[in-house]
Amino acid sequence: MGAMSATIVANPRARGMRRFDAERALRRLGERGLEGRLELPDSPAGTAEAAARAAERGDAFVFVLGGDGTVRLAAGAMAGSESALAVLPGGTANVWAKEAGIPRNLHRALDAHLDGQQVAMDLGRANGEPFLLMAGIGWDAQIAATVTPPLKRRLGVLAYVLHGLPMLHRLRTTKTAWLAESEAAVEEVGLMVVSNTRLYGGILMFSLEANARDGQLDACIFTPRNAPEALRHSLKVVARRHPGDAGVRELRTSRFEVSTPGIPVQLDGDVVGETPLTLTVEQGALKMSVPAGPLTPVLRG
After folding, report:
1. pLDDT by residue for the chain (301 residues), tens digit each?
2. Which of 50, 60, 53, 56 is nearest to 11 (CA)?
3. Which of 96, 282, 279, 98 minimizes the C-alpha distance to 192?
4. Do 36 and 30 contact (CB within 8 A), yes or no?
5. Are 198 and 237 in contact (CB under 8 A)?
6. 141 vs 269: CA distance, rounded Å
7. CB of 47 closer than 8 Å to CB of 66
8. Nearest to 48 by CA among 69, 21, 17
9. More exposed terminus of the chain, fewer Cβ within 10 Å: N or C?
10. Residue 114: left if φ>0, alpha if ψ -120 to 50, beta else—which one?
11. Separation CA 124–CA 117 (nearest Å)
C-alpha cells in the first residue's frame, strides 16, 4: 500500500504567499509520511479544478492557501469527498481561519492540521455557487463591488471601510420579496446576511448562534425606515446587541429565496452577481480539518 498523499493548492496572488516556504512545507509533509505536491493555479477556476483533482485522487489533506474566496471555491469542488479541506490563512480577512481557531502563521497552521481533527461541516449554495461562511444581499455587496483586488490585497479589511464610508449617504432600501421555510414577506430591505457560520469580516457577528453543522442557514434581515435607524442598526451590530431590535428580523431555515431582481450579492466576500437568488445548504458535505482540542462554538454539534 502506497503512502498517503496531500496537496497544497496555493493562490499565487494571495497576500500570504510571501510568508510561505513551499519547499519547507512539502518537506514537512514528507516527514509526516505524506506524499506531497504543490499546485499554483492561475485562476479561480483553476483553484476549483486543482482541489477537485486532489479529492478525486483521494488525498488525505487538501491544504488551501489563500483568502476566504479561494477557500469557498475549493470547498465547492471538494463537497462530498473523503479528503479533508485544511485552510492555510493567506488572504485578507481569513475569516474561516479565525472562526475555526487555525493559527495565523502558515507553517504553524500546517502543523495544527497534521496534529488536528476532522469534522463534517455544512456547505451553502447560492444558485448553485458555493459559500462556506455567508451570503450578503444588498448594501454589503454594493460596497464590496467597489473594492478592487489590488486594493484589497494592499489594505485588507480597511479597503471596505474606506470605500464604504463615502457611500453610506447614497444607500437606499429596496422593496424586496423573500421566502423562507416558515415565513415570507415583501418589505423595504437594506441588507440581508444569510449565514452558515458566525464571524463576518473577521470582526462582526450578524447571527450570533449560527451553527455550521445543523443543516440550517441563519438569516438576519435589516429593514431600517430611515438613515438614523440604519445607523442605530450598524452600531448595535458592532456591539452584538442587534437581535430583537426594531427593524431587525432573524430566522433559521434550510432554504431562503429572494425573487426581487437586481439586488447585488456577495458570497464570502466575492461579488457574484444579483438576485433572484435561491440559497440552500448541504448538511455535512465537507470534511474540514481543524486544530485539536475543543471545537469552536460554530462547530459544536
Report:
1. 356 999 999 999 888 899 999 999 999 999 999 999 999 999 999 999 999 999 999 999 999 999 999 999 999 999 999 999 999 999 988 999 999 999 999 999 999 999 999 999 999 999 999 999 999 999 888 887 776 666 565 555 555 655 555 666 677 899 999 999 999 999 999 999 999 999 998 888 999 999 999 999 999 999 999 888 888 888 898 899 999 999 999 999 999 999 999 999 999 989 999 999 999 999 999 999 999 999 999 999 7
2. 50
3. 279
4. yes
5. no
6. 8
7. yes
8. 69
9. N
10. alpha
11. 22
CA distances from residue 105 to 15, 65, 205, 245 in whole angstroms, order as listed: 13, 12, 24, 39
Residue bearing cell 475569516: 95
Cis ω on the peptide bond leading into residue 149 (within 30° of 0)?
no
